Fold this sequence. Notes:
Distance between the termini: 65 Å
Strand order of the largest sheet: 1-2-3
CATH architecture of the largest domain: Orthogonal Bundle
Order of helices and strands: EEEHHHHHHHHHEEEHHHHHHHH
Structural class: mainly alpha
Shape: globular
Oligomer: single chain
Largest sheet: 3 strands, antiparallel
Number of helices: 17
Strand content: 5-15%
Number of strands: 6
Helix content: 40-55%
Amino acid sequence: MARGKQTVPSYLLHKPTGQARVRINGRDVYLGVYDSPESRAEYARVVAELAVHPTPADPTPLTPGRHQVSVNELLLGFWAYADRHYRRADGTPTNELPQFRQTFRLVRELYGHTPAREFGPLALKAVRQKMIDTGWNRKLVNQRVGRVRRAFRWAVENELVPVAVHQALKTVSGLQAGRTDAREPDPVLPVDDEAVRATLPFLGQVVRGMVEVQLLTGMRPGEVCQLRPCDIDTATDVWVFRPRQFKTRHRGKARAVAIGPRARAVLEALTPAEPTAHYFDPRRTVAEFRAARSAGRKTPRYASHMARNTAVRVATPKREPADRYTVSSYGHAVARAVERANRRRERLAGAGNFDAVPHWHPNQLRHAHGTAVRHRFGLEAAQVALGHERADVTQVYAERNLTLAVRVAAEIG
């Protein structure tokens, strides 16, 4: 019986020269010194390209002089630029830098030692396939492919690669829903009121206040984390919060959040001593936790134990809590509270005999607020409350409420 055709070419040794080679369509492609990291990287690149295009084109020869940087060198130069550019007004890095870091890791694995001018549409599609194989969803893949293009656009601007390279990369179209192997992202839906109520008892006072304020005002998680008295206009009964940092600040947009009586009462209970301090301070959470643990202590505090614990803390100090929550730490606190709520339900009812509290994250509170405002006051009110410039963006956040449709169907349909 004849052997089946081998789809993945082997990594071979060319004995006369000591180079690694791979045979494609009857032609040897040399990869560099056998068993070197560079040759292994080139082999991975060739295999990745074959996965998306079985008949690769001949490599473009380099011309001496300009445009001879490798992909690694291009990405390193762009990273230095991005580290300066993607900064907030207070100097802290934006969330773009971690996105670039994760994106560039895959590019470097496949094409790090490749001349940057040889990085074309086929290479970009190979990187995209690697992203899909990693398990990233379709929208995330499209976003990160766009970040690769952004790096090459910067390289063209700085005359590191010919303009034709970036123009060629722009021909790679984005993945479309239902026409790709990439998984579809789960839609971000409003969190159910019952899920929030079941979670609140398992949150400390500070994080519980964050959840309540966000649900009542529709702020973004990052805006809740940065709330300070000095950033709020308290001249009227309805306070107005103008965040220092927000999503569209770099585009010259303004952002103001109205804080009504119920949300104001939550903030007043957590007002810090200094107007420049944050309402939601993790140090309060830590102090509350330690106080509860001390109150529940059953063994006496022996003097020898206290002295030993003090010495250990001095010798191996733990990281002190920050002066404010981040979006990540806020989300982790909510996730842990949901887990504690479900463990309690399991203890009371037994495994498999209870309805679990669904996991949710703070972004869903903004969706829930938008949906509630739209249901009571209409789409324009939801647009204003969420701070969107266009109503079509609000449609994404303020899910259509089916109450009216159900009533119409019951009476007419």
